[in-house]
C-alpha cells in the first residue's frame, strides 16, 4: 500500500511539473522531445490510474496489488498493450515507407531514335507505357561476377 501511495504522490508531482512546464515560455526542446501537452495528458491519466488502484486496494482490503484481481486494470493494460503494439507497427511501416521513398530513383531518360523505334512496337504489343517496359527491364538487371550488366530474355507484362 505504501508503494502505491508513493506512486500516487509521484504521479501528482509529475502532473504538477508538466503543467508548470506548459505555462512556462516555449523553449526549443529539440526534435526528439515529447510534446509537453501529451506529457500533461499522460500525467493526468497516470495520476488517476494510481488513485484508482489505491482506492481499489483500500476498498477491497488488499495488502498488495494483484493484477489478477484487478479486472478493470488488467483490461486497460491489455488495451494499452494492443494500442502500443499497433502504434509500433504503424511506426515501423511508416519508417519503411520513408526508407523506400529515399531509395526510389526517378529519372528522366532520353532515348536515341533507334532505341525509341525498337521500343515502340514492344509497348504497342504489351499495352504498356515505355517507362513501364524500361522499369521491368531495370528490375531484371543483374551484375555478373566480372561487373558486367546482364538481363535474361523476358516478355514485358
Written account of the structure:
With 157 residues, this protein is an all-alpha fold. It has five helices and two strands, in the order H-H-H-H-H-E-E. It has a two-stranded antiparallel ribbon. The longest helix has 33 residues, at 71-103. It is elongated.
Question: What's this, in brief?
Answer:
The protein has 157 residues and is mainly alpha-helical. It is 66% helix and 3% strand. The radius of gyration is 30 Å and the shape is elongated.
Please count the helical segments: 5
Shape: elongated
Distance between the termini: 69 Å
Give unreliable regions as ranges: none
Radius of gyration: 30 Å
**Largest sheet descriptor:** 2 strands, antiparallel
Element string (H = helix, E = strand): HHHHHEE
Task: Determine the mean pLDDT.
Answer: 87
In which range does the helix fraction lie?
55-70%
SSE-based structural type: mainly alpha
In percent terms, what proportion of residues is strand? under 5%
Kindly state the number of beta strands.
2
Largest sheet strand order: 1-2
